[in-house]
Amino acid sequence: MPIKPAYVKRISRELIERYPERFSDDFEENKETVTLVTNVESKRVRNRIAGYVTRKNRKN
């Protein structure tokens, strides 16, 4: 089953909106935070979400 980019972006935006102080521009920290605040079981999906959150935080 392919991971849809829209799914990753939607989840990432919701996480940034709900927990703006918990995410930084460090990918490793964001991976741990995504694991704590979501119920995503797939490592691949978790990493994509954390990567998108990291990219968004580096822009700001």
Observed structural traits:
single chain, about 60 residues, mainly alpha, 3 helices, about 70% helix
Largest sheet: none
Assign an overall shape: globular
Quaternary structure type = single chain
> Which band does the percent of strand residues land in?
under 5%
Count the helices. How many? 3
Amino-to-carboxy terminus distance? 32 Å
Low-confidence stretches: none
The total beta strand count reads: 0
Report Rg.
10 Å
Element order, helices and strands?
HHH
Textual characterization of the structure:
The protein is an all-alpha fold and 60 residues long. The chain is built from 3 helices and no strands. The chain has helices at 5-18, 27-37, 43-59. The model has no long low-confidence stretch (mean pLDDT 92).
